[in-house]
Amino acid sequence: MKLFDVYPINNIAIVKAKGSNVWDDKGEQYLDLYGGHAVISIGHTHPHYVERITNQLNKVGFYSNSVKMPLQEELAEKLGTISGKPDYQLFLISSGAEANENALKLASFYNGRKKIIAFKKSFHGRTSLAVAATDNPSIVAPVNQTSNVIFLPFNDVAALEACFAEQGSEISSVIIEGIQGVGGINVASELFLQTIRRLCDAHGAVYIADSVQCGYGRSGKFFSHDFAGVNADIYTMAKGMGNGFPVAGIIIAPHLQPKHGMLGTTFGGNHLACAAALAVLEVIEKENLVQNAAEVGQYLMDELKKIPQLQNVRGRGLMIGFDVPEQYKDLRKNLLWKHRIFTGEAKPNVIRLLPSLALRKKDADQLLEAIKEEVQVGAEA
Ligand SMILES: Cc1ncc(COP(=O)(O)O)c(C=O)c1O
C-alpha cells in the first residue's frame, strides 16, 4: 500500500529528539525551531513527560467517557489554575479542528443562531465548520461551503461594528486567533479583541478564542487573547497541550451550560491523553516556561529586528514571524540544509518560528548567527 500523498515533505527521517534538538537516521543533529508545527511546548522527550505517560500506560491507557475519570478532573483543576480561568468548564477532544468544530457548534446550541464571523487569513482546521471558517477556498470542499460564515478584514474595528449593526441578531459566534499562525503571524490588536467582547455582549453572540497555535503559553501569556484584558467565552486549544500526544480541549465560560449528549467523542480525554496533558502543565509550571517564552521570545525578536535585511519582524513570545525579501528567498531552505535548523513558513515569503517554550538564549543565538551568515552570503551573490 502507498501513502496518500498530500504532504510536501522534507527528505529527513527523525529518529531521536531531546529538548530543542532532533537527530536524523544518519546521526545529523538539527535545532528545532518549528516544533512539528508549534506542537512541542516543553521540549522533546522531557523526562517527566516520558515517565508520566509510561507509568500511566502501565496502569490503564484508555477507557471511554462512560466511566468516572479522576484524571480529567485533575487536569481541569490544574488547567483552570494555570490559565487563570478557574471557573471555566473543560471538554476534551483530540485535535485543533475538533476543538473549533465543537466550539462553533456549542455557540450555536447556546444562542440558536447560525452565522459565524471569521477573519481574512484565518486558519481554524479542516473539518466541516472549522474549514468553512478558514479563509482558504482551496481546502474547502463543495460539501463544506456555507453562506453562514462571514469573512471580515482582520483588525478592522469599523468593519466589525458595521457587520454587527446590520446582522447582530443573527450572529452566533465570532472566532479569532489571537495571533494568526498559518496566515503569517498577524497579531490581533488589543482594541480589536476588546471590540469583539463588547459587540458579542451587546448582541448575545459567543466570542471564541482560537488558541490552538497561539495559546498554551506560546505568546508569553497563557492565552495571547489575555493581552487585551478581556475574557473570551470559549478558548480552543490543542498543539502545545500534549507536547505531541494528540490531546485538545475547549474551556467554556460558566454561562454556557452543558446538557447530556450535547457534545461527545470516543477518544477525547482518555487516560493517556490526560497523563500527557498533566505532565505538560506540570513542566510549564515547574520550569516557568510561560515566562521563558516571554523573555527568550523578546530577546530573539529584538535581535532579529537588528538584522536590516529581514522585514516586518513581528509576533509575541515564541511565536515570531518575519518577511524574507526576494533576494534571500532561499533563506529557509539554507537554514535547514546548511545550518541544520528547522523553521516554519507562511506563504508567500514569511519565516515562522514556533520553537519549544523552553528554548534557551544560546539556541536563539545559533539561529541569529546562521541568518547573519546567510544574508551576508546573499548580499555578496
Ligand atoms: C489556529 C489553528 N486552529 C486550528 C488548527 C487545526 O488544528 P489540527 O491540525 O490539530 O486539527 C490549526 C492547525 O494548524 C491552527 O493553527
Record the strand order, biggest sheet. Answer: 4-12-11-10-7-5-6
CATH topology assignment of the largest domain: Aspartate Aminotransferase, domain 2
What does the overall shape look like? Answer: globular
Counted beta strands: 17
Distance between the termini: 45 Å
**Biggest sheet descriptor:** 7 strands, mixed
Mean pLDDT: 97
Any idea of the CATH class of the largest domain? Alpha Beta
Beta fraction: 15-25%
Q: Classify the secondary structure makeup into a structural class.
A: alpha/beta
Features:
381 residues; alpha/beta; Aspartate Aminotransferase, domain 1; Aspartate Aminotransferase, domain 2; 2 domains; seven-stranded mixed β-sheet; four-stranded mixed β-sheet; 11 helices; 17 strands; 19% strand; globular; binds pyridoxal-5'-phosphate; pyridoxal phosphate binding; aminotransferase; transferase; transaminase activity; Aminotrans_3
Write structural notes for this entry.
This protein has 381 residues and is of the alpha/beta class. It has 2 domains: 14-45 and 292-377, Aspartate Aminotransferase, domain 1; 47-287, Type I PLP-dependent aspartate aminotransferase-like (Major domain) (Aspartate Aminotransferase, domain 2, 3-Layer(aba) Sandwich). 36% of the residues lie in helices and 19% in strands. The protein contains 11 helices and 17 strands. A 7-stranded mixed sheet has the order 4-12-11-10-7-5-6, sandwiched between helices. The longest helix is centred in the C-terminal third of the chain and has 20 residues, at 361-380. The chain is globular, with a radius of gyration of 21 Å. The model has no long low-confidence stretch (mean pLDDT 97). Bound molecules: pyridoxal-5'-phosphate. Pyridoxal-5'-phosphate (PLP) is lined by residues 95-97, 100, 123-125, 177, 181-182, 210, 212-213, 238. Pyridoxal-5'-phosphate binds at residues 95-97, 100, 123-125, 177, 181-182, 210, 212-213, 238. Belongs to the class-III pyridoxal-phosphate-dependent aminotransferase family.
